[in-house]
Design brief:
single chain, mainly alpha
């Protein structure tokens, strides 16, 4: 049985069960078999399916994957580039850079206070992974140093010692190979 024959049988079964909407969609699909060309309806359907599957609008890179038409199909079918077509039919709002940086810094502060890291490496190792690493936040705040970042953001500094700092203790051990016997032998 071919794909087209299978679709015809499914259309008949759906019509008999009163599922006319599903039968209509399959009828449209069967008219496009075999897929040698993409109709406008098939293009929009593929993009809508991608959005349902991935929870986002596809990027131009996503159109290189299976299930979406190639860039050239969009160019031929609509007379515009894929990027222009996406902006026209599926616009996405991009947040300004200063807002992105402010939000990332705010997320860093929350995450820092939650995990109370003892170092930059400790922060990166224990952070929740949608949040950015400490160095990205440092660059947003015009520094490259961990301690300066913490000072700029007014964050407390945590250490991993269980006891408070105490003054260092100095222990001296003297080992001498000086021979004391020679001094007293002349007496």
């Amino acid at each position: 049985m071919t794909r087209k024959q299978a679709l015809s049988a499914a259309i008949e079964a759906l019509n008999a069960a009163g599922q006319t909407e599903a039968a209509g969609i399959l009828h449209t699909l069967s008219g496009e078999l075999p897929f040698f060309s993409w109709s406008e309806e098939a293009i929009f359907d593929a993009v809508e399916q991608f959005i349902l599957d991935h929870g986002r609008v596809p990027t131009t890179s996503d159109f290189k994957k299976r299930g979406l038409p190639p860039h050239t199909v969009i160019k031929r079918r609509f007379g515009i580039t894929l990027q222009e077509w996406l902006e026209q039919h599926y616009p996405t709002k991009k947040m300004p850079l200063d807002e992105v940086q402010a939000k990332a810094t705010e997320d860093f502060i929350k995450e820092y206070l939650r995990i109370q890291p003892t170092s930059a490496e400790d922060y990166n190792a224990r952070r929740a992974h949608p949040s950015r690493g400490w160095f990205a936040i440092a660059k947003y705040n015009h520094t490259r140093r961990w301690r300066i970042l913490l000072e700029k953001l007014g964050l407390p500094i945590y250490n991993n010692r269980a006891v408070p700092d105490s003054p260092p203790q100095l222990k001296v051990r003297v080992i001498s190979d000086y021979n004391f016997e020679g001094e007293n032998s002349s007496d």
